[in-house]
Model the fold of this input.
Amino acid sequence: MVAARFIAFEGGEGSGKSTQVERLATSLRATGRTVTVTREPGGSPRAEQIRSLILADGSADLDARCEALLFAAARADHITHTVRPALERGHIVLTDRYLDSSVAYQGVARGLGADRIRDLSLWATDHTVPDLTVVLDIDPRVGLARAQDANRLESEPLGFHDDVRQAFLDFAAAAPHRYTVISAVPPPDEVATLVRAAVDRCIMAGGLG
Ligand code: TYD
Done:
């Protein structure tokens, strides 16, 4: 019996989440684990359609509440059609962004209210929360310079991204047993080693991995 695990990667723009998710998946598969890699917004066919609504070039006038509801709607579909079925099959599910992105971007940085936005996503996902959230931390001044193809959210002012960064650090500080904060500044190999160690601890914690 292998234990399923749900692991989320969070961080600001240019923190290298996608690279680290792929590297972790490769290293876990090499040890015989079955891994599902997914992302938000998106991760299921319908949620990918919602993603294109949210991030489309023509979405500059998207109302903030509409944006928050679309992220939550996409998340509900993603959980139902991708994440939960994979967990039921015993997979390790790695998601590039999850619920905390909504709380940080829409709740804190957009000012819609962290508690309200968290409650909305908890309702949307029937309270499906990650076993571990890996926060890849980077100063937005460095991260934004690394990021390519700025989307609508990346184009927000620096103060917005500072708020997002601080929000992720605050979530981690409030629940250290469910988070690990790793600096995204060192070379990807070094970051990957630290990520793998944190994930191994999470897998071992259930005693079944
Ligand atoms: P994406 O191109 O996937 O960026 P990244 O590589 O940084 O993950 O775009 C996703 C954007 O949407 C990103 O700017 C963060 C933002 N976002 C939210 O504002 N709220 C959310 O709930 C999620 C999942 C993402």
Summary: Strands lie at 5-11, 35-39, 92-96, 132-137, 179-183.
